[in-house]
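ok so for the tutorial part 2 we go from a plain amino acid sequence to predicted structure tokens. step 1 is just haveing the sequence, like this:
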Amino acid sequence: MLLSIIPDNYLMIVALILFLITYVCLLGFPKYRAYIALVIALVFIILGISPLNKVLGLINFNVLMIIAGTMGIVALFIESKMPALLADILISKVPNIKWATIVLAAFSGIISAFVDNVATVLMVAPVALNVCKKLNISPVPSLIYISIASNLEGSATLVGDTTSIVLAGEAGMNFLDFFWFKGRPGLFFVDQLGLFAALAVILILFKDTMPIKYDERTKVEDYIPTILLVGMIVLLIIASLIKFPEGFLSDNINGLIVIAVLYIGLVYRAIKTQNLKDTLKVLKEIDVFTLLLLTGLFIIIGGLVNVGVIEKITELLAKASQGNLFLAYTLIVWVSVLLSAFIDNIPYIITMIPVVAALGPAFNYSDKAYLLYFGLLVGSTLGGNITPIGASANITTIGILRKEGHEVKTKTFMKYSVPFTLTAVTVGYIVVWLLFSGVGK
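step 2 — the prediction. this is what the tokens look like for a chain of 441 residues:
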């Protein structure tokens, strides 16, 4: 568009200024986040920062399909009253709401090691909402902890998060390498230590110890939505273990699976109710506001990558290490935490991988610099927890709470996320250094 008349260096500055304005507005005006992101995305397109002919390529349709499809499936799941039954079972096993929150956060983390973070939140959140409704308390703390726990475990396995898939491909790692790597415990166990430490933070900081009174359990009359949900999880795991030819199918397989399962659920509901209008009401449960926000952010972040803003940041990072391995590792981890709190970690990791690879020879690595790779993954995966817009799962959680009548301010979110995140990152940072500082030399 206007790209040809604006010098590259000025375009980079313009993009960075607009990006900063965007995130200030997103943090300051949560009710209008989708509109802010879409308006700035349009400005990026007009200026040529995100070229019009590349816009569709910048949007991660796989993620959008996963979110939309899972929201629909979860709506059927909630209607079946299975979340209410699970909430009843949980209530009967724990003494108070503090332990209920800890158990749900741990459960969310374990599932998220194998299933997309957003899908995990959409599955676990209804259970937490039912618990909080039964106790007549705010679901905000519980859902925030569930969200950030799911993000934390994204780097635990090859299939836990897109970033793990991308980095494993570059580092030549397979599924089992995340459990045991080069004769050492892998990232899976690093993440479990981080999760354990972060759950201890909930135990210390969560003040609500309201006792849970157990009464009779909810009766579930339709188990098909639960079967669909479990089937979706199994299919996602199977798909992650199959190598598809590069192209549309491999890029969108998870989203297509989720949409297909939703379609089956809608057909089943239509046959059961004999009412098409009632069946289509399920689609109203899909949070379009969240989908629009993510679409705008994909275009904005893609524009930053396109004009070289992220690449310039990584070049500065490479120079700052000055030949010191520990300093380089420390910078990679904590700068990744900082940047991933505000930008999507997928383009960030894609941009950082060549920098990390280039740093390897400088530190006498005969093999790949696994320490720096793992530091990059730990920092960028966990860093998205700090702000409500740093990860798709957080954005989804805020959307769920908004539908329940709870507007979550950035300050409120960070009250819970910062101690949890910093604890988990610190543990991961120390353990990865102790395990892998000499691997590959």
